[in-house]
Amino acid sequence: MSRIGKKPIPIPDKTNVDFKDQTITVKGEKGSLTRSIHPDVELNIEKSVISVIPKNDNRQGRAIQGLVRSLVANMVTGVSNGFERVLEINGIGYRADLKGEQIVFNLGYSHPIEFSLPNGISATIDKNNVIRLNGIDKELLGHTAAFIRNLRPPEPYKGKGVKYAEEHIVRKAGKSGAK
Questions:
Q1: Mean per-residue pLDDT for 113-142?
Q2: Is 175 helix (H, G, I), strand (E, B) or coil?
Q3: What range defines the domain where residue 130 resides?
Q4: Which of 80, 104, 126 is the last residue of a domain?
Q5: Does residue 177 sit within a domain?
Q6: What single DSSP character describes residue 156?
């Protein structure tokens, strides 16, 4: 059995959970999220706890149980607390500016890059080189952060580029010169 899938999901106060026709809707202080649930699992909602129960006790049913449990737990956490991702920009002249719902990046290319934030994601920029992304949908937040990082991934020689705040860039030695 899936260890993660067996764990019950606590529902915090001021959070409502509805499950109908294999679709779960979670509403909380920060907003609401909706997701369709795989047909191999069933959700059991009791008082302040959600349990994920597989319909089939085979390998796929147990795997889907753990996946669905993680997705539902992320939905509950997102609508109650929200998620944050921090990106850092390293490099001389590299910077980001927030203009409404767009972030304008200067990343060493011949032109600035304009990136429109998706619905549900907000951003703040500190000191022109630290970007804080906030949202209730962990999956959308991760995709947005990965797309921004992919605009100029960090390079291993000087570490220039966009990286996650917790990411460690392994540096390489440059040319060693003439022998």
A1: 93
A2: coil
A3: 83-164
A4: 80
A5: no
A6: T
Does some domain include residue 174? no
pLDDT reported for residue 56: 84
The CATH number of residue 45's host domain is: 3.90.930.12
pLDDT digits (tens, 9 = 90+) for 13-32: 889 999 999 999 999 999 99
Q: Is the pLDDT of residue 174 over 90?
A: no
Residues 62 and 127 in one domain: no
What is the domain count for the chain?
2
> What's the CA gap between 79 and 135, in Å, rounded?
9
Token reading at 49: 């706890």
User: Can you state the angle between helices 138-151 and 59-80, rounded to 10 degrees?
Assistant: 80
Q: Are residues 108 and 96 in the same domain?
A: yes
Averaged pLDDT, 73-94: 93
Give the DSSP H/E element, type plus range, for residue 97: strand 95-99
Distance (Å) of CA 32 to CA 37, 80, 165, 168: 16, 10, 28, 34
C-alpha distances in Å from residue 161, one per residue of 89, 90, 126, 151, 158: 6, 5, 16, 8, 9
> Residue 118 domain-assigned?
yes
Per-residue pLDDT band at 61 (split at 50, 70, 90):
confident
Q: In whole angstroms, give the CA distance from residue 141 to residue 118.
A: 9
The SS3 assignment for 52 reads strand
- pTM, 2 dp: 0.87
